[in-house]
């Protein structure tokens, strides 16, 4: 088979995989296709190109879709490998783009093995960082595990997402097709009705008994709390569609993880279902294009896609599809007490693995100005600079007396990407030349003149105050 440019197409590994999946020998396939067994062997070894006639024979003989056999030509694997090979550890190896493409197309098994090995390596790197984190963020001594729990399900899921840059291209692709079939959120109810024979009913909170969504398969009903706002309602409808129609894709993604507990696997499954639901409401291609056009204006994007501020902020951290990467963001969500309930790192921000964040970060201060976006330039002790956007979000409510939970969300990116954000155009906002000096956590921050400090840095001795009391909580030598 030749393309319009005259380039031959070789599909040996895919033909071999098809034959093995069908349980056939080369002689069996040759007999079915009315060709010789040696010719099948040549095709599988990429010593003969795949012709259009042979593709049609395969499709007719084994009742398969030509698109399924042809696949994407290894485009996804090529993009993923190109992204990985930009890592500093490969910087001294000159690998032409054509070689990467040839490997992905001609040897998809080898490409998949490389990608799996790299992902496993990243997960082990993150796990090692978690093991070392307590010695940096507090605890009694660095000679033992200091409370590190290798089986912490939340930490496991964070590593699982971080190792994949919080992006799952296969889920995005399936979501795109489902969006086309449903015409977006407006068609979710109809899809549930026609494809799954489910009636959607809206019931008051006292009838729902603490649930916001419940699938009643016996009565063929999907029950939703009637006080949900539009964004939350769309998300719940999308999530139920995901559980009904995307279980295979979620299961495949989970198989790639190395979970040590059932709780971690269930948390990861929930995270992937949420990812898929967001992909139905904010499809990758359309959302990424809109994000660039609107210069990452979260409130404008939320209105365009009928999503909440938090849903939009979360989705914007997922725009790292290999070959279609956008600005990399991190996200953190905290409550008024400083507890971290959501953390996604796609921008290389060195979050503390335990404890809270720096009190000088505006994410802790925006509770004083509800619903207002506060921007801030941040500088870490090692000189790294980031740009942060913080705002409060509300969960619950929906009626008088209903419980509401106020939290703060902050997203940010490295300073070199900040110029692409609309928020840096505000002349009255804080300037990049005057960043707020913050630390990862007090125990690893060695800034000596911080009035907000709550703990003595590791490795520093407290200065006596017999003759002098400093204007900071903990005085210690600066060297």
Automatic annotation (TrEMBL):
One Pfam match: ScfRs
InterPro entries hit by this protein: Cro/C1-type_HTH (IPR001387), HTH_RamB (IPR026281), IrrE_HExxH (IPR010359), Lambda_DNA-bd_dom_sf (IPR010982), ScfR_C (IPR018653), TransReg_Diox_bact_type (IPR050807)
Lipid biosynthesis recorded as keyword: no
Highest taxon, organism lineage: Bacteria
Keywords: DNA-binding, Transcription, Transcription regulation
GO molecular function annotations of the record: DNA binding; DNA-binding transcription factor activity
Annotated GO CC locations: cytosol
The HTH cro/C1-type domain, residue ranges: 15-69
CDD domains membership: HTH_XRE
Keyword Nucleus among record annotations: no
Similarity comment: Belongs to the short-chain fatty acyl-CoA assimilation regulator (ScfR) family.
UniProt xrefs under PANTHER family: HTH-TYPE TRANSCRIPTIONAL REGULATOR (PTHR46797), HTH-TYPE TRANSCRIPTIONAL REGULATOR SUTR (PTHR46797:SF23)
Protein name: XRE family transcriptional regulator
Organism: Tardiphaga robiniae
């Amino acid at each position: 088979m030749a393309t319009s440019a005259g380039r031959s197409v070789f599909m040996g590994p895919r033909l071999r995989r098809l034959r093995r999946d069908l349980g056939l020998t080369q002689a069996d396939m040759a007999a079915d296709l009315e060709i010789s067994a040696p010719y099948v062997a040549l095709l599988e070894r990429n010593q003969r190109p795949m012709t259009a006639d042979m593709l049609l024979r395969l499709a007719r003989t084994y009742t398969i879709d030509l698109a399924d056999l042809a696949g994407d030509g290894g485009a996804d694997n090529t993009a993923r490998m190109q992204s990985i090979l930009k890592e500093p550890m490969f910087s001294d190896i000159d690998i032409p783009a054509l070689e990467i493409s040839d490997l992905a197309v001609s040897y998809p098994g080898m490409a998949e093995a490389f990608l799996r090995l790299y992902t496993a390596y990243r997960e082990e790197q993150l796990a090692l960082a978690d093991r070392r984190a307590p010695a940096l963020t507090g605890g009694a001594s660095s000679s033992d595990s200091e409370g590190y729990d290798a089986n912490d399900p939340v930490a496991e899921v964070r590593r699982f997402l971080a190792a994949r840059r919080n992006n799952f291209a296969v889920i995005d692709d399936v979501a795109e097709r489902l969006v086309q079939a449903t015409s977006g959120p407006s068609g979710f109810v109809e899809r549930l009705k026609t494809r799954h024979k489910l009636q959607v009913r809206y019931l008051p909170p006292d009838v729902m008994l603490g649930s916001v969504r419940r699938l009643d398969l016996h009565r063929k009903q999907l029950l939703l709390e009637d006080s949900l706002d539009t964004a939350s309602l769309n998300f719940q409808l999308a999530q139920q569609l995901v559980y009904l129609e995307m279980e295979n894709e979620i299961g495949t993604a989970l198989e790639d993880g190395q979970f040590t507990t059932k709780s971690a696997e269930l948390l990861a499954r929930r995270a992937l279902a949420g990812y898929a639901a967001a992909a139905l409401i904010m499809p990758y291609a359309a959302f990424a294009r809109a994000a660039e056009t609107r210069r990452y204006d979260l409130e404008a994007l939320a209105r365009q896609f009928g999503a909440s501020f938090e849903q939009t902020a979360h989705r914007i951290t997922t725009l790292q599809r290999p070959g279609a990467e956008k600005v990399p963001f991190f996200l953190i969500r905290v409550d008024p007490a400083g507890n971290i309930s959501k953390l996604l790192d796609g921008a290389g921000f060195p979050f503390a693995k335990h404890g809270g964040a720096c009190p000088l970060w505006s994410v802790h201060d925006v509770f004083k100005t509800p619903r207002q976006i506060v921007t801030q330039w941040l500088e870490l002790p090692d000189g790294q600079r980031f740009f942060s956007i913080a705002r409060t979000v509300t969960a619950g409510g929906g009626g008088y007396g209903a419980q509401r939970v106020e939290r703060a969300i902050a997203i940010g990116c490295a300073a070199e990407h900040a110029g692409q954000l609309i928020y840096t155009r505000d002349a009255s906002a804080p300037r990049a030349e005057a960043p707020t000096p913050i630390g990862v956590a007090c125990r690893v921050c060695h800034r000596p003149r911080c009035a907000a400090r709550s703990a003595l840095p590791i490795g520093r001795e407290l200065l006596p105050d017999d003759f002098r009391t400093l204007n900071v909580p903990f005085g210690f030598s600066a060297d």
